[in-house]
Amino acid sequence: MNSKKSKHSDEFYQNLLSTYKQQRNELKKKWDRVLPFNELISDRWEKASFLNAKNGTSIYDNSYIFGKVRIGKNTWIGPFTILDGSGGLLSIGSNCSVSTGVQIYTHNTVKWAVSGGKSDYEKKPVKIGDNCYVGPNSIIGMGVTIGKGSVIGTSSFVNSKIPPHSIAFGSPAKVVGKVIIKGKTVNFEYFNK
């Protein structure tokens, strides 16, 4: 191995490590959190801007984004998410929280796979209204519309329309309550207590 090249590689590594530690310490001090290296050096708001999301939206660096995806303002797209607009427009409204591990698909390959490749992929758009919360590790299938002001519970599989101001969870997701907002007060009313 060329010792000159090795020295430069070692110097690069040391500079990178120093930058990482500095960023990690600043984040821990300011926000009391520690993130992976790529999240320390990336700008979530710049990524959102690059993807033409509206003002105030942030998208984690390790979020996978495919195809036609439109995102409103002040929306948070958490880490380890998949936003698949390859089968049609995936529209996410303003003031939404799309939690860690959420997967949203506008296509599926089920019929293609079971037909031995004879059937086409199925493709349908997905729309999530303004002011929605999608819980961690939930999956939203193609063709789904989630009405504004709705809550999707953790680890839910949504494969049908969810009306506005609904609480839905499960696999498949079922509407189990409604969101009631009066001024700044938010209440969740469940149907079968």
TrEMBL record:
Gene: dapH
Keyword tags: Acyltransferase, Transferase
GO function terms (MF aspect): phospholipid:diacylglycerol acyltransferase activity
High-level lineage: Archaea, Nitrososphaerota, Marine Group I
PROSITE patterns, alphabetized: HEXAPEP_TRANSFERASES
Tagged with keyword Acyltransferase: yes
Native source species: Marine Group I thaumarchaeote SCGC AAA799-P11
Top EC group: transferase
Matches recorded under SUPFAM superfamilies: Trimeric LpxA-like enzymes (SSF51161)
Enzyme nomenclature, EC number: 2.3.1.158
Family matches, as InterPro entries: Hexapep, Hexapep_transf_CS, Hexapeptide_acetyltransf, Trimer_LpxA-like_sf
Family annotation (Pfam families): Hexapep_2
Keyword Transferase: yes
Protein's name according to its UniProt entry: Carbonic anhydrase-acetyltransferase protein
UniProt xrefs under Gene3D superfamilies: Hexapeptide repeat proteins
